[in-house]
Amino acid sequence: MSKKRIINAHAHVFTSQFVPPFLAKTIVPWPFYFLIHTRWIVGLAKRYYHYKHSLKFPNKSTADNGWDTLYKSRRKKRTHTLLLYYIKSKLYLYIPYKIIVFWLSLIAAIYSIDWLSGLIGINTDASGIIKWIKDKLAHLNLYYELNGYWKLLWVAVVIVFINWSRRVIWFVVKSLFPVFNKIVSTKGMELLERYMLMGRFALYGSQRNVAQRALHQLPPGSELVILPMDMEYMGAGKTKLRRDLLNAKKEKLEDGWENSDFQDTYKYQMRELWEFVKTRRESGSPEQYHPFLFVDPRRVEEEGTTFFDYELVNNKMKLKPCFVKTYMEDREFSGFKIYPALGYYAFDERLLPLWRYASENNIPIMTHCIVGVIYYRGRKQKSWNFHPVFKQHYKDKRSNPAEPMLLPQVKNVEMQFNFTHPMNYLCLYEETLLKEVLKGAKNDTTRQLFGYIDDATPLTNNLSNLKICLAHYGGEDEWIKYLESDRDVYSRSIVKNPDTGIQFMKNDQGNFSDSKINSLWHDTDWYAIITSLLMKYDNMYADLSYIISKPSIYPLLNLTLRKGSDYETQYKLYEAESSPNKKASHLKGRNRLRSHILYGTDFYVVRNHNSDKDLFVETKAAIDEESFDLITRENTFNYLSRD
């Protein structure tokens, strides 16, 4: 029997066109984040990469003289290298050379300080240090007060052409202006990397070109899951379609596009993605793409029935003409994508009808499950101080009713922890907790859709068969936390009870415990929680995207993929099952766990660490052949299957 195709279960191909302008908000202090406009920064990065690569790879527009340009650029580079070697070989030349480089960098640092001081209203001369340096250099005719534009040009030239100077300037600026420590913080550097990546892949122009770049790093015949983004509601400013895209509107309308496709960047992104996938399908190309549809509860609410509309026929959801029907049924998109870190829970009331539709039709959902650099940038809502479902008891008030669980996070970067937490998915899978969600629903129609009457009456419809993939498996930090944690009693369950893991809904006395839920939420690592979820639920998955760029995870990954007890007997039943969506129901414990892990890279976000080709080779070398085929072929096939 031939092997199934290799599938990268997690790739991004959206360009900076679909990203809001003020991603630096909450990372860079006000008002400085206004100066870091996404389009400007990405545009600079794009120009840098365009210049860098144009010398190496002449494009088609310069076909006549492209190779001449390439030859000349390499000849210039060779001449420059030989000259530098000559200078370094002569001490009497090398010492003056280093002095000149230091002088150029020092003057650039002073000009930078002057500019930043004027920007925030500080007189650096008052401190005496900068003035003393200026006077000493001026006395030696080594410092000149230039026009502001010339100062800016000086700094730019030095930063571009003298690598060492960049470190000097940043060191001086950060020492004198503590506010810039926030700009170059860990999150700030991650954001800068993201800008550079968007600029790098902006060179490809469209989602189609980016997707092909990703797929062509895998063996022939491989497939790719494409995950778009809708960042319109994250509080980082509104996105706008570029002028050149709007100028092409008339031509696109003639090709079958609709006016609604130009309504906003989200609509345009989905249509552009569809046009690319449709072309590949119609051409009969062996290269296959699986596009997902991004859904945000705030868009569901804002656009109403034009976005998602349905009727019940024989107690089954049937979609009426709407945006979701167009993409999920008419255009056969492969699944739904959500990103709770943008400011909502996966069990948001506005998403529940969609999740029933997905459950009834075996439609996979991909959800973000790692603390990262993309998260809600707006103001915190008062309701976010408490969890909507989980409760807590105070020790001195055991006899009193439980109260909503307190969530102490205040900063935006911290709040994403609550929205992204893997335990939130218990509120979808466990009927007891789903009832709590429905009890608090504002819309009676939502309660009726699931048949909610009261806590004692079973639901007529639940979400126990929902198919969800927790992307990034919690993140590398959570894997390390699991390995280093030796006191958390629940984390130890993975070792003590390898075929069951954590029992979320029962304590040692066999009862549901709010205290246990609280302890798990606040203290237990996400690796142990996700691993236990995968062992418990038939259709819950996790992918390895982004974290496979971290060598530290591979020893634990090997252990995670090991077979459990009674594997041979369970596997025979697995093989005999004809429905891909029911296969895992025949597996238990660790055998089910290893059948729920997917290979994914997080292209192109991961590119600053590794290329997709490198990640593929590293993963293949790190685990055995059977496990590799399982996570790259079998598991993802089952996850995507609607049968």
Report on the structure:
The chain has 643 residues and is of the alpha/beta class. It has a domain at 29-199. It is built from 28 helices and twelve strands. An eight-stranded parallel β-sheet has the order 1-2-3-6-7-10-11-12, sandwiched between helices. Strand 6, helix 15 (352-360) and strand 7 form a beta-alpha-beta unit. The chain starts with 6 loop residues before the first strand and ends with a helix.
How confident overall, as mean pLDDT?
87
Poorly predicted tracts of residues: 59-67
For the record, give the distance between the C-alpha atoms at the N and C termini, rounded to a whole number: 20 Å
The gross shape turns out to be globular
Give the spatial strand order of the biggest sheet.
1-2-3-6-7-10-11-12
Estimate the strand proportion.
5-15%
Q: How many whole angstroms does the radius of gyration measure?
A: 28 Å
What percent of the residues sit in helical stretches (DSSP H or I)? Answer: 40-55%
How many helices in DSSP terms?
28
Estimated structural class: alpha/beta
User: How many runs of DSSP E, i.e. beta strands?
Assistant: 12
Biggest β-sheet: count, sense, barrel? 8 strands, parallel
TL;DR?
Helix 1 (38-54) packs across helix 8 (186-202) and helix 5 crosses helix 6 (163-176).
Features:
single chain, 643 residues, alpha/beta, eight-stranded parallel beta sheet, two-stranded antiparallel ribbon, 28 helices
